[in-house]
């Protein structure tokens, strides 16, 4: 049987939109049949997170590995020390990569709860 490419199995994130200033963690889980040759990492707008945040305000956790039959489950967190509204409009992508292929999953924040409408329409009154 041929080896399968790695795949992202789950992206865990808060059920509600984080508030500015909150500490937030998002988790990415993947599986691979070539664990010793597999990388799991996060990108921000196509760049490595550490290169954009040398201060550590957004940082990756360490990769955790757990055997699952013939495969290995990999897990890596993305930590926001102080969530900022600009993060809502930033493209964060979890990537799993091995010689067998690549899989990606984009982070999609929950939609903000609809509050009362405060704008007035431009209609005639």
From TrEMBL:
InterPro entries: Ig-like_dom, Ig-like_dom_sf, Ig-like_fold, IL18BP, IL18BP-like_dom. Residues 6-108 form the Ig-like domain. It holds the Pfam family YLDV-IL18BP-like. Transmembrane segments: none annotated. The lineage of its organism: Eukaryota, Metazoa, Chordata, Craniata, Vertebrata. This is Ig-like domain-containing protein. It comes from Hirundo rustica rustica. One of its GO terms (molecular function) is interleukin-18 binding. It comes from the Eukaryota. Gene3D superfamilies: Immunoglobulins (2.60.40.10).
């Amino acid at each position: 049987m041929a080896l399968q490419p790695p795949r992202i199995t789950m992206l865990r994130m808060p059920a509600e939109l984080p508030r500015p200033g909150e500490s937030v963690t998002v988790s990415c889980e993947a599986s691979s049949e070539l664990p010793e040759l597999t990388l799991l990492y996060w990108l921000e707008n196509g760049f490595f997170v550490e290169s954009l945040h040398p201060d550590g305000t957004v940082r990756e956790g360490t990769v955790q590995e757990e055997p699952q039959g013939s495969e290995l489950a990999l897990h890596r967190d993305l930590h926001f020390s102080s969530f900022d509204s600009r993060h809502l409009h930033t493209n964060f992508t979890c990537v799993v990569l091995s010689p067998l292929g690549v899989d990606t999953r984009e982070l999609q924040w929950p939609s903000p709860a609809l509050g009362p409408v405060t704008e007035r329409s431009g209609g005639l009154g």
